[in-house]
Amino acid sequence: MIESILAEYESFSWAMALGITVIYIIGDALYAQYTLSVANRHPVSASNASALIHLMYALGVMSYVGNYLYIIPIAIGSWIGTFLLVRRGIPR
Question: Structural domain boundaries of the chain?
């Protein structure tokens, strides 16, 4: 098991991890916007947010399929994104 983690760490890129974290912070903000757009019945805004969310999250999935250690920045980005939105308040 330790050998497997070390092998994954060798191909781990901190720049990629930072990018993934930022993508998931933005993704959580878009998810909040999507939810508001659906609740307020704004189909174009909801559809645009949905498309961007899926595109961004697909990049995350592709990264951790290649190296499961990228799940860590995904979780961190999601946590930060949700925390910031809840703390700041969701814009209307």
Answer: 2-88
